[in-house]
Amino acid sequence: MSQSIGNMLSVARDRQSKSRDATVFFTYLSELSAALSDLIEHLSYEVQDAAVSGEIDLDGATILDYIDYAIQLQSEIKDTMQSLLNSLTGSGIHYGGDMVFEIRSRL
Fold it and tell me: From what superkingdom does this record's organism come (predicted)?
């Protein structure tokens, strides 16, 4: 009987650990997405400034490629976050309302 209680406590600790790990992972993804947003905005202003001053050249095209790649990466991050949220809130796994609310607010 005491082994069964020990197993239940171990499972509870594992869930808390997984919940904490998932929260940290989502936090990093969210911070990466925010950094990409800042980068996209910064690069967009650089291209706009170059276009206004008539200095669009190969560097301008390269910057546009960087913006495109950053937008694609940001989209993939958001898709990953949504997919992970769906798996966490599925019928088989549930890590608690606070983390799910935090994840949804980051999407």
Answer: Eukaryota
> When comparing pLDDT for 23 and 104, which is higher?
23
Residues 6+ apart with CB under 8 A from 40: 67, 70, 71, 74
Given a contact cutoff of 8 angstroms between Cβ atoms, the answer to whether 107 and 92 are in contact is: no
* Residue among 90, 70, 88 nearest 21 (CA): 88
Angle between helices 2-52 and 97-106 (to 10 degrees): 10
Among 100, 106, 101, CA closest to 78: 106
Question: Residue 57 and residue 18: Cα distance in Å, rounded?
Answer: 49
Query: pLDDT for 25-60, tens place per residue?
Result: 888 888 888 888 888 888 888 877 776 777 666 566
**Would you mind telling me the total number of residues written for the chain in this entry?**
107
Give the predicted TM-score (pTM) of the model. Answer: 0.56
